[in-house]
Predict the structure.
Amino acid sequence: MLDRQVADLAMGEPRVATPPSRATVTRRRVNVLVALRKHWLLYALFAPTLILIVVFNFIPNILTVPLVFKKYYLLKGIWGSPWIGLGNLEALWKSPDFLIVLRNTIIISVYRLVFGFFPPIILAILTHDLLLKRVRRITQSITYLPHFFSWPIVYGIVLALINPANGVIITFLRGWGLDPGNLLVSEAFFRPLIVITGIWKEVGWGAIIYLAALAGIEPELYEAATVDGAEWYHRIIYITLPGIKPVVTLLLTLSLAGILSAGFEQVYLFYSPLTYSVGDIIDTWVYRRGLLSADFGLATAVGFFKSVVGLLLILTANKLAKRFAGQGIW
């Protein structure tokens, strides 16, 4: 067989790929069974996670696809509800509020990406360069702690600081003759408040990934650069940043895919009817229309729209990352 293939190549004849034989398929099945029998405990530990993912993620996502094209009635169920074609998507685009919430979602997400993507990198670099281990551990613990606060607790902290009645910051400003008013219902202050509180809560946790990447850089590179007379900023530019470039590319690509998810829980707690014009996002709008108004078809259409846009964004971001950064997610 090998001589025949060599002769075909020498004569310039294309080699036709043959399907795997029955013996090869049987051998693969036996190998799978052997692996299952050998590592059955690991697969048994993984089984509950797989079941949860299938039941609560995979199956619901599959079942929501027909809802996009149906007028859903709760008593009739998914398959008993009538088909309406693209009616839900048409109602979505004709809704006067959708373009407003879409604009707010994109603006808040872009603000989060522009102002919130780099602080974890900066914090990780600064923490990694600390010489005293005790100071490094204390700094890491203090910056990690807000991540474990729920958003209601964070809102309570913010309320204690800028409450118009007796907030700490408001009282301090009034002592200097300044009265900023009620910042909680200020349209001009709402988006900066969302971005600032988001950074404060997640900057320490986001730095963990970059610290792990920095730990993989060889210390000898820094030592050699120091011996050659490189300053601290030279070491950051030519050693640190190239060392964490793959992680930065990965996280940036994933962040672009979630551009239409601006953080439901945070926005829902901080916004009010007075700030709907600048703070109402897709998720909060879907909550009011889909759950409170029981318009499940429209809510499903919005979710379908977000999924399609997210898929296109992550494909585009991955392609751009390969072109300009030389690497992507896959």
Observations:
- DSSP finds 18 helices and no strands in the chain.
